[in-house]
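HUMAN: I'm a chemist; might I ask for a sequence paired with its structure tokens?

ASSISTANT:
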Amino acid sequence: MRKTHYITFRKFFHKPSFNPSTKPRPFKTYSFVPFSPLAMLDPTILTIGGIILGIAIIERILERWGVIDLVDQFGKIMRFILPVTFYSALIYFFATFMF
């Protein structure tokens, strides 16, 4: 006939720690930190945004004054500068704040 051996809950969970025969290998861990919208308050991002906003305001003022030729020149320049600036700022933002 078999005898049943009971282990108390306390003995089961409070076993002495044992030393593993093999040492764990170190490995690199990476973590993803979600970025905050407050990170957009970086001086570089604010400067780029301020310059673009300033050019847009100047363009509107020149349009009110009736200097259409100069407004057209600003429009041509902005069609090139805006996408380049946007993607450059986006790359800068992710390169600076994500890594």
The mean pLDDT is 79.
